[in-house]
Amino acid sequence: MLQIKNLEISFKKSPSVIQNVSFSIEQTEILGIVGESGSGKSITSLAILGLLPKFATIKGEILFKQQNLLNYNENEFQKIRGSKIAMIFQEPMSSLNPTLTCGIQVAEILQQHTLLSKNEIKEEVLSLFNKVKLPRPTDIYNSYPHQISGGQKQRVMIAMAIACKPQLLIADEPTTALDVTVQKEIISLLKELQDEYKMGIIFISHDLALVSEIADKVIVMHKGKVIEQGETNELFLNPKENYTKALINSRPNTEKRFKVLPTVTNFINDSVNTCLYTNEERKQFHQKIYNKTPLLEIKNLHKNFISNASWFSKSTIVKAVNNVSFKIYEGETLGLVGESGCGKTTLSRTILQLEKATSGQIIYKGVDILKLKKYSFKKLRKEIQIIFQDPFSSLNPRITVGNAILEPMKVHNILNSLKDRKEYVFNLLEKVGLEKEHFYRYPHEFSGGQRQRIGIARTVALQPKLIICDESVSALDVSIQAQVLNLLNQLKTEFNFTYIFISHDLSVVKYMADQLVVMNKGKIEEIADADEIYNNPKTNYTKTLIAAIPKGL
């Protein structure tokens, strides 16, 4: 159905970003394309749909039904986009129009490519919403994107993509940063739709374990080239290239805990550290930290929100955090897991006093911080810090990263002079794997992994005691994720940090955490040693989370 021959893509006078790429996909086949950010996966898919900028130079052939798409003009592309070839983009929030309801956006596709009447189009959209298993289709038809969850937005994007029953569907990282349970549902849904519509799917991801659960064939891309391809089972069980082995093994292993997670560079240089963190070492560490007084104690914490309050409707109370209690000890990493909306982030924001608690106690170093005056808590704020999920949106694009790190240091009087602070930041940048000259660069000049390191440096600069890591690795490539997790563990050992590590990915949390808290609908489902919960989950909810982890073949 689709055949790509010797594809080369370059921009202006730069070297080719795609070099001699060739592959094919048959009807009813699912082809997985894997590789890190910058490997050329998305650029290749955009070339198929004619969505690259005009200054791109493209050589080779892209044959769809024996027609070379590189010879198509914009009008010809518009006739096949959405109808013959459709695409699900990585980030539905930025792909959906915030000013139009979800139903209208899907209806537009049908208006453009079919002769259905207005009423028939609405019926078809509601039918599509049912097909992609959206709850309350009529409500979602009339809802704006910001009013529905991430998983629901992704389903709306899928409904839009399959509206005209395309022959080829390109899914570009359709599950990145989604809960593992929602991710599993999306994978199952794509398989069902592919079987029903007899369409081919190109499934793009950096996660080989995830791709192995859906793809018939896999191609591995690295620096614009296809370095390995073959049947999924064969490629996954017998990878030939070190890069492929690295992608398979960079995700934390749920069976054993490496002291240092292997990265892509380790595999390419054949320098994998195979030392394991033994159960005995873990036990000794826990005996040491759990004999102390807790650093932080949460007692019967509640945080309620009032919703739907208006002149004509009765307000309802949403219990975002509902009677939560736990202790965290100095030097410990407490893992906090659960699906979106379970209360993880609200809990962390309440600890930071960014949200005002409804009731309960937050005792830090023996003092209930909920009773502190604003001035007293401001002095304490430098001791409790957060690393955000999206470092780019939390960095000011107008100031250099060096000044972004210096700014809070000045506010909290860390060190005495600008010279001392600057020298401290230079050393800190090197400590997190960056360079001194990066001090003078702006956030847009860095990759996602580098920006996350900058976010970590800014947090560490204040010399805090407790750091909340809120989904701080969820949107990173598996190899960059491994580097950042290693860095967090290294800094924890060096500075005796205590972490609250929030994630929806249980394999990552199990690797990082000493104690694990599982949250669901504002309440704690389970709390125990991370290994104990993973090996012997008590509740059905926890069992579902564990079962949803992509395990590969």
Radius of gyration: 25 Å
Mean pLDDT: 88
Number of strands: 20
CATH superfamily of the domain at 1-84 and 199-249: P-loop containing nucleotide triphosphate hydrolases
Biggest sheet features: 6 strands, mixed
The percent range for helix content is: 25-40%
CATH domain topology of the domain at 1-84 and 199-249: Rossmann fold
Give the CATH architecture of the domain at 1-84 and 199-249: 3-Layer(aba) Sandwich
Q: What sort of overall outline do the alpha carbons produce when their principal axes are compared?
A: globular
Strand order of the largest sheet: 6-7-8-3-9-10
| CATH class descriptor name of the domain at 1-84 and 199-249 | Alpha Beta
Distance between the termini: 28 Å
Structural class of the helices, strands and pairings?
alpha/beta
Percentage of residues in strands: 15-25%
How many helices? 22
Q: In terms of per-residue confidence, which ranges show pLDDT below 50 for 5 or more consecutive residues?
A: none
Give a topology summary.
Layout: E1 2-11, E2 18-25, E3 30-34, H1 41-48, E4 56-64, E5 67-68, H2 74-80, E6 85-88, H3 92-95, H4 102-113, H5 118-131, H6 137-141, H7 150-162, E7 168-172, H8 180-197, E8 200-205, H9 208-212, E9 217-222, E10 225-231, H10 232-237, H11 242-249, H12 264-268, H13 279-290, E11 296-307, E12 316-328, E13 333-337, H14 344-351, E14 359-364, E15 367-368, H15 374-381, E16 384-387, H16 401-411, H17 418-431, H18 448-460, E17 466-470, H19 478-495, E18 498-503, H20 506-512, E19 515-520, E20 523-529, H21 530-535, H22 540-547
Parallel strand pairs: 3-8, 3-9, 6-7, 7-8, 13-18, 13-19, 16-17, 17-18
Antiparallel strand pairs: 1-2, 1-4, 4-5, 9-10, 11-12, 11-14, 14-15, 19-20
Helix pairs in contact: 4-5, 4-7, 5-7, 7-8, 16-17, 16-18, 17-18, 18-19
